[in-house]
Amino acid sequence: MAGEDLCSISDLSSSEVRALLKIGHDVKRNPRDYRHALDAKQMVLMFEKASLRTRLSFETGINTMGGNAIFVDQTNSPLGERESIADVAKNVERWVDVIVLRTYAHDTITEMAANSRVPVINALSDFEHPCQALADFLTLQEHFGTVNGLNLTYVGDGNNVCHSLMLTGAQLGANVTVATPRGYSPDIEIVTKARELAEVNGCEIKLLQDPHAAVEGADAIYTDVCVSMGMEHESTKRAPIFRPFQVNETLMSEAPSHAVFMHCLPAHRNAEVSDVVLDGPQSIVFDQAENRMHAQKALLLLLLGGLPNVTKFSGQ
């Protein structure tokens, strides 16, 4: 993977996803082994959207491996506005080893990748959130031991997080059920790709419109905000549509007692999830947040060639 981009989970093979998660677990257990793995490597973070977890987990991750992070705030000057994205890429590649983007339009990610000679990482776009999904499945492996055959149910808006969860689950052999209101289903292109991957890896992607049916047999129940950044103008319209999809005590009680609750955060408390569930014993949301750093450290190690013994992490 050295020198490659991560614009989408589908950029990775199933074996690469498995290897990345294996490295993530090792990085978490043995951080001192990686203290100098990325010495003198430079990473630029160019963010059009506000961030807590993404920024801090990337900055802390590379800093603890000997590298350096440079943050460029693009919230008031979207990429491509002051100068073309191609020109930005051809400048930035001369100074840094990896470009991390958090943008609105997914095309910004792909255009930067097409014009840059250094790896480009999608740290969130309107179409996917691959780093989040990698951390989520790292967390599920940690909790359940394996995700092969696991039943993950996503309830809410068929958004970027939903897209990356479907693709990652399909890569790893997890069954993913998505329950959305009518008209808010995930993108058909993503669904088709995820189902193709699921067929190869012996799992299933299901789309439903009934959250109660969706959580039957679920090992994990996941939700996200129903109004993503940049869509605030739809808040009033969406609120009543998504109210029946709130993850609350009633919905959680319809899943097996061992089921965990997941959320990418930030959460709108008592909107898409009740306080009782978010703060309850089944919630692993802060484990997910912590594992953003470990999954992203593994990603940086792979893309920047920081693994001296790659055979240790190959295979299943």
Description of the molecule:
- The chain has 316 residues and is of the alpha/beta class.
- It folds into 2 domains: 9-128 and 292-311, Rossmann fold; 132-289, Rossmann fold, CATH 3.40.50.
- It contains 12 helices and 9 strands.
- It has helices at residues 14-29, 53-63, 85-92, 106-115, 130-144, 160-172, 188-201, 211-214, 235-242, 249-253, 275-278, 285-303; strands spanning 42-47, 68-73, 98-102, 120-122, 151-155, 175-179, 205-208, 220-223, 260-263.
- The chain is globular and about 55 Å long.
Put simply, the count of helices is: 12
The rounded Rg comes to 19 Å
Record the strand order, biggest sheet: 7-6-5-8-9
Give the number of domains: 2
Kindly report how far apart the N and C termini lie.
16 Å
Sheet bearing the most strands, described? 5 strands, parallel
* CATH topology tier name of the largest domain: Rossmann fold
Low-confidence stretches: none
Order of helices and strands: HEHEHEHEHEHEHEHEHHEHH
The CATH homologous superfamily of the largest domain is called Aspartate/ornithine carbamoyltransferase
Short description:
This protein has 2 domains: 9-128 and 292-311, Rossmann fold, CATH 3.40.50.1370; 132-289, 3-Layer(aba) Sandwich (Rossmann fold).
